[in-house]
Amino acid sequence: MFKNLTLLITIFISIGTFHCQAKKVLFIGNSYTGQCSKIITDFFQAEGPAWELTFHWKGGKDLSFHLADPVTEKLIRSEKWDFVVLQEQSQKSGLGGEFSKGFHQAVGSFAKIIQKAGSTPCLYLTWGRKAGDKKNPKAYPNYRTMQKKISAAYLKAAQENNALVLPVGLAYSETKERDQALFESLYKKDGSHPSTNGAYLVSCIFWSSLSGKDPTSVTWTGRLTGKEANMLRQSAKVALTKTKR
Asked: What's the whole-model pTM score?
């Protein structure tokens, strides 16, 4: 009898834990979000199949665009999301002047809407372009300068709005320090958008930030080699330790 009772208690605890881990996440952004969505979905399906992910994105658009779009706010209010992830257009946040001002205003407005809806706002801290930004060479002459400015903008916005930072850009930087060739493999040929490897690193950060689990415990490797996946998981772990509050 005691064995049966112990078994029943174990089952109920397991079921309760499973449901506690099930979360709903809404992602809002542009192609940096959309082009990763398949791998993010596969990653979460492998590591946490109970999670429900929804993606709302439009190529080239910024957070101000989404803020002005009534569809976006309606979507935020349509479900009881656990997390709402915001991604700014890849250049805007660190450019300074009206660009950075617009970023901070949009994050502030979104944070209020998200928190009022009972969800946690999250900021998808993106990466600098592999060789800097040719369209903005003075502001972003190289990767490191671009990453430093983008990171500072996101970290400031997170602090001001009590938002959770998802430090993908910091994981890119850590990968660069560890292995230049692997860092370069994070990009598509345009030196901007995420490759399959880049999307895997994005997924590592998202999964670990939102679930609270150590990225090095992940077993799913997707289409990466075991060595590549392991190194990216290590980069994710270092990046996450730098932003823990």
From this structure: 0.91
